[in-house]
Q: What sequence folds into this?
């Protein structure tokens, strides 16, 4: 029955634009990830939620006792915990999406060769890309909702606009997942994968999550503002603190470009690798 359904879907897509890339069955990839989650990967996802909460408690309420209130960059003085909470939420969305779309994808491409099997069916490379990224989005959504459940009762979300931080975190996860999967599709060895951790550490430390960028010289600030995590933090911080202006749309556009570029290069690369 499943085979006949897959054949019927493939026949409906036949002759339509992009039929060699997309079969309309990306949901099957998500279902496979959910089955794997239930059997073995749930603990990894849970640990990704606990990490930002521990950072918040240790830095926000530990170091924050010595710092007091801080200028949020929006003209408002807020507690240090309220200042770093958006940064931790954005970082959590980034980490969940990156690790799902890099190490997991690399294993499926080169070790288990799972994508070889998927693309031997009616699935196209865009189905695989969208399915993997959709799973990363669900992970980002769970992280965002869990983190908001923790920080909102603590009074760290002073604006009702903060509820939009949840879809913003999903958008951020989508951007990083698309970018991460695109980059990973060009890697061929585990040694190359180590470059991801090397890149993520400075991006996190110098993102403005724990202190304003004004502590850096001008050229350093310009470099940091070109990186995606800074845009993610500024988007979520603006929403949680109620600082709504046109700059937020610029941050959203930044991630839309990341998503489009990531999908394009991932689909192109998977097609070149497996659809010969």
A:
């Amino acid at each position: 029955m499943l085979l006949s359904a897959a054949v019927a879907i493939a026949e409906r897509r036949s002759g339509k634009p992009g039929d060699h890339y997309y079969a309309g069955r990306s949901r099957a990839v998500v279902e496979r990830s959910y089955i794997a989650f239930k059997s073995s990967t749930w603990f990894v996802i849970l640990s990704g939620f606990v990490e930002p909460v521990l950072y918040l408690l240790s830095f926000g309420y530990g170091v924050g006792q010595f710092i007091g209130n801080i200028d949020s960059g929006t003209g408002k003085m807020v507690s240090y915990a309220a200042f770093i909470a958006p940064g931790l939420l954005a970082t959590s969305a980034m980490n969940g999406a990156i690790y799902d779309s890099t190490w997991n994808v690399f294993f499926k491409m080169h070790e288990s060769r799972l994508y070889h099997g998927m693309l031997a069916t009616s699935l196209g490379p865009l189905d695989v890309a969208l399915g993997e990224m959709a799973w990363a989005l669900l992970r980002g959504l769970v992280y965002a909702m869990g983190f908001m459940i923790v920080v909102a009762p603590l009074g760290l979300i002073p604006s009702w606009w903060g509820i939009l931080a949840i879809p913003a975190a999903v958008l951020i996860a989508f951007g990083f997942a698309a970018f991460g999967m695109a980059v990973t599709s060009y890697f061929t060895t585990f040694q190359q994968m180590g470059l991801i951790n090397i890149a993520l550490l400075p991006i996190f430390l110098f993102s403005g999550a724990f202190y304003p960028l004004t502590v850096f010289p001008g050229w350093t600030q310009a470099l940091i503002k070109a990186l995606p995590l800074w845009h993610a933090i500024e988007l979520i911080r603006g929403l949680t603190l109620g600082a709504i202006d046109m700059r937020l749309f610029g941050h959203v556009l930044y991630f839309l470009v990341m998503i489009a570029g990531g999908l394009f290069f991932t689909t192109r690369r998977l097609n070149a690798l497996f659809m010969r």
In short: The chain has one domain: 2-274.
